[in-house]
Amino acid sequence: MGLGGVLAALVLAAAPAWAQAPQTPSRPDPTDPDAVLVEELVVTARLPGPAWWTVSNGATTVYVLGAPSLAPKRMAWDRGVFERRLAGANLVILPFQDVKVSFTGVIGAAFNFMRLRGGGPFEATLDPERRARFAAVRARLGAPPDRYATRNPLAAGLILATDYRDKTGLTTTDPTKLIKLLAQRARLPISQRSYDLGPLMGAIIRTPQAAGLACFDEVLAQAEAGPGITLAAARAWAQGDVRGALGNERTYERCIALVPGAQAFDAKVKADQVAAIEQALRKPGHAIAVVPLRPLLAQGGVLDQLRAKGFTVTTPGEEAD
Fold it and tell me: Is 225 among the domain residues?
């Protein structure tokens, strides 16, 4: 994957979890848009398989599946509830997967790409301890030093995150990719947004060096620790254990918050997801929505906004098939 692809990964999942961080810390980071959860929404599912929430206006229901932000590729999960709800649905709303560069932003994106590349191997910029740790991880991943030809620590962290995930079989796109395929086979309309990558590439360059290095350190520590926590969280997700699934739901939020303009971008994504669900509630019948788990459950997140608009939200613990 080229650096352009890595930068797209920034939007989806820039950095892995801090394994021991509490799900709602006693002193939440004000730059983290999803630091605080709405605790009454964090409920273990009654039905088999992953947890679902419902949003209703009394006449129409949208079934909302909270999806993991990082999971094993082709992860197995009980699709019984999903398949019953897919039957007869009039729409499937998906989180964004594809990040584009608009025609007007192509020149600027290419310029920013060139500014991020070059300057020799990134490890040459590190102190001896970090250099040794990074070189050991890089060698284990089978990546040569010039794979990380940048002096930008945030860009280096994004490349490392992608290499680590590729090597360990983790992905930011499952189970959404499978759900999209099944919806297409069922010939259902799909609502899925894409966003312009160009401004984010420039924003990475403007990220303060210290913040970028902190993000790099977080990625490095996760690559050293290995995928055990992610695998455990994925198993919890598949069993409807929401709290267990949230154990690894600190993916892009902590690092994306360090990038200039990122909080506004995050707010726009959530607003678009809320608007798509609102639109689906205007049509009789039922629809399905897939939303990343923590943005779904955070204060100011998708369900919190929908409740504030007067819609009825039902938790996985209240559901009847």
Answer: yes
